[in-house]
Specification:
The protein is globular, with a radius of gyration of 25 Å. Helices cover 47% and strands 19% of the residues. It starts with a helix and ends in a 5-residue tail after the last helix. The protein contains 11 helices and 10 strands. Helix 2 (56-72) crosses helix 9 and helix 4 runs parallel beside helix 11 (307-329). Strands 1, 2, 3, 4, 5, 6, 7, 8, 9 and 10 form a 10-stranded mixed sheet that branches.
C-alpha cells in the first residue's frame, strides 16, 4: 500500500508547520532570555551566607555586597542561613529561581558536602561556581602555654606518646577537621578528634587547654594570635603571611603541605548564560578593585580574582583533593 501524492503533500506541509512552530518557540525562548538578560538586574540581589552573622565569611560577604551594589547599580543584601555544615543555605540557593538574584557565598563545604553526606536535600549539580572571593591559609594554633615549639615538634611528640594528643574542630567535616586529617595523612601525626559546634567553642577549648591544638583558617584566630592568647605553630602556605611574619610555614619545617579554606560565589546552574556572563563580568571588576584587595588582605586572607573560569577549575581541583582525604579518613557526617 502506497501513500497518495496528496497525502504526502499534506504531511510535508504539516512537517513544515511543525518545524516552523518549533523554530518560533525556540526563537521566543531565546528572545525572552535575551530580554531578561538585557534587563538584569532590575531589582535587589541576595547574597546567601550559610554561616551565622559576624563571622569571617559574613564580614567578607557584606563588603563584597557593597562593592557589587556599586557595580550593578542595584541593592545587594546579605541573608544568613546557617546550619548543618552549610547544607541549609546551599539547599536554599539550589532551589531558588534561576534568575541571577540569589547567589550563594559558599566555602570549602560547598565542594566537600557531596562526599560527607550520604543524602543531601539538594542536587550538588544544581549549583555552579560563579567567581572566587577569598582564600585563607590554615594555621595550627595552641594555647599561649604551648608545649610545642612548632608543628614538627608536635608530630614528633604525638609519635612518641601515642593517644596522648587531641585536636579541636568546628564539627565533623568542617575545614579544621579535614585540614587536620590531611596533616595526619601526610605526617603520621597521632591525635584524637574532638568536634565542637562551631568556631567559638573550639577556640575556647584550645584557650583553656582542654584540647591540644586547632588547625583553623587565619580569619577567626588572627586576633587571638596577635593578642598572645593563642600561639601559631605553623602556616600551611607557600610563604609566611604578612599578618604573621613570625610564624614559619609547614614547608620550612619539612612538611610539604599547603591548604586552607576559601570563599566564593555560586549560582543556580540553570541561570541563563547571558545573566551568568553579566555577573561574571561584574564580580571580576569588583575583585580587581584595590580597595577590595586591601580589605581582604587586612582580614588576613588572600583575594581570589580571575573570574568564573579560573574559579570553576579551582573548585574542581578542591573536590578531587578532598574526596580522597575523606575516603581515606573514612569521614562521614551521617
Amino acid at each position: 500500500m502506497t501513500l497518495s501524492d496528496m497525502t504526502l503533500r499534506k504531511m510535508a506541509r504539516l512537517g513544515w508547520v511543525s518545524g516552523l512552530a518549533l523554530m518560533a518557540a525556540g526563537l521566543h525562548v531565546t528572545a525572552t532570555a535575551a530580554a531578561a538578560a538585557q534587563a538584569y538586574p532590575s531589582h535587589m540581589i541576595k547574597f546567601v551566607v550559610p554561616f551565622p552573622p559576624g563571622g569571617g565569611t559574613d564580614t567578607l560577604a557584606r563588603y563584597a555586597a557593597q562593592a557589587l551594589e556599586k557595580e550593578l547599580k542595584q541593592p545587594v543584601v546579605v541573608e544568613n542561613k546557617p546550619g548543618a555544615g552549610t547544607v541549609i543555605g546551599t539547599s536554599y540557593v539550589a532551589h531558588a529561581p534561576a534568575d541571577g538574584y540569589t547567589i550563594l557565598v559558599g566555602s570549602i563545604n560547598t565542594a566537600t558536602n557531596r562526599y560527607l553526606y550520604k543524602k543531601l536535600p539538594y542536587d550538588p549539580a544544581a549549583i555552579m561556581p560563579l567567581g572566587g572571593l577569598a582564600y585563607s591559609p590554615s594555621i595550627i594554633v595552641t594555647s599561649e602555654k604551648k608545649r610545642f615549639h612548632d608543628v614538627k615538634d608536635l608530630v614528633a611528640y604525638s609519635k612518641a606518646h601515642p593517644g596522648k594528643l587531641n585536636f579541636a574542630s568546628y564539627g565533623i567535616g568542617s575545614s579544621p577537621h579535614l585540614g587536620t586529617e590531611l596533616l595526619i595523612q601526610a605526617t603520621g601525626l597521632d591525635a584524637t578528634h574532638v568536634p565542637y559546634q562551631g568556631g567559638g567553642p573550639a577556640q575556647a577549648s584550645v584557650l583553656a587547654g582542654q584540647t591540644d591544638f586547632l588547625m583553623s583558617s587565619i580569619l577567626p584566630v588572627l586576633s587571638l594570635i596577635k593578642s598572645g592568647r593563642l600561639a601559631g605553630l605553623g602556616v600551611a602556605a607557600d610563604k609566611r603571611l604578612d599578618a604573621l611574619p613570625q610564624v614559619p610555614t609547614l614547608k620550612e619545617q619539612g612538611i610539604d603541605l599547603a591548604t586552607g579554606t576559601w570563599f566564593g560565589f555560586f549560582i543556580n546552574s540553570n541561570t541563563p548564560a547571558p545573566i551568568v556572563h553579566k555577573l561574571d563580568t561584574a564580580l571580576s571588576a569588583v575583585m580587581a578593585r584595590q580597595g577590595v584587595l586591601d580589605f581582604i588582605a587586612k582580614e588576613g586572607a588572600q583575594a581570589m580574582p580571575g573570574g568564573r573560569k579560573a574559579f570553576t577549575q579551582f573548585v574542581t581541583n578542591e573536590e578531587q583533593r578532598w574526596q580522597k582525604v575523606i575516603q581515606l579518613g573514612k569521614i562521614s557526617v551521617d
